[in-house]
Amino acid sequence: MKKGAVAAVNRSMSERDYFSLFGLSPSFDIDLPDLEKRYFAIQREFHPDRMIGKSTQERTLTISRSMEVNAGYETLKSPLKRAKYLLTVNGIKEADIKPSNALLMEIMELREALAEAESKETLAKLEADNTNSAAKIVVQLSSAFKEKNLPLAAELVTRLSYVTKIADEIRIKKSGIAQ
Q: Which domains does the chain have, with CATH numbers?
């Protein structure tokens, strides 16, 4: 990695800006294979194994940097985490986002359908519907961020959070149904 890139990593780590850390513009739409390449390039530079024989201070700093790189990568590679991060960068705290009554009713109905599901086929249908719903929300999030419609993006992040939780619940229930 070139000295300028290392300086950018050092600078962005102190600012906790994950987009700058990876040399990306703040955007919901990112090229995931490119992010992965950047991640591995940075990780090679700051990997703790490269610090053998260095001072304790240098090792500690490198471990801290490596952890920050990992955290940034985990945040940016996930559409939900990336969207939450973008909202935070734009001054919208997750705790300030409240789900609509309609969304709460929709999620309650999904949970009821999941509770009543007793066959692999029914769960597969619920899972497919939920996966389609998540994909549509990601497309809508992309548009909302492009249009700088942060209130809509916040609403969609809440919706995606619930859909993601439902996906986890479906996986758990599927594992409990006899194969």
A: 3-77 (1.10.287.110), 94-176 (1.20.1280.20)
